[in-house]
What we know:
This protein is of the alpha+beta class. It has a domain at about 5-115: Conserved hypothetical protein from pyrococcus furiosus pfu- 392566-001, ParB domain. The chain has four helices and seven strands; from the N terminus they run ββαβαββαββα. A four-stranded mixed sheet has the order 3-6-4-5. The radius of gyration is 26 Å and the shape is globular. Residues about 135-180 have low confidence and may be disordered.
Amino acid sequence: MSSPETHSHTVPGGRGHWLTEKLWAAAAGLPVFRIAIADIPEFDQDCWFRGRAPSLRQVAAHAARIQSADLSYPIILSADGRLMDGGHRIARAWIEGRTEIDAVRFEVDPEPEFIRCAPRRVDRPARRPPVASPTPRSPPSATGASCAFPTPAPRTPSPGPETPSPASTFSSSTLGILPEG
């Protein structure tokens, strides 16, 4: 079973992630318009391989998706014009010699499923020998970004024999700790 298809792009505080099927539902009913393929910035960007040289298998997988892309569906653009869905449709339209493609654009982007926080860059001074009495450093200030992660489904205990809790399994005597005195 494959994982659901997602789209992500940078948002304040990190990288927002959307489920593509939810984008389709949210975009239903938006007005369709024509956009020049040359005016879509992602057409000249690496949207699939994340800066790594793709393998032949990866290129072939995308070629198959491009061939099967259904141009009857418009591409989806964010409120600021970034591509949220439709890269394979854009590629197919271009291969077929088209210069424009149908699109819809959110007026306000739907909320992402979650935001993955950007790693904090910590500028560290050059390595120096230890100092006898180091000066305590204050913690870095908060950026104010709130990061949310998908909430995992609640676990349901599997039927079976009762398992003792770790606290009841170990005691001071089993760990070789003797009471003082």
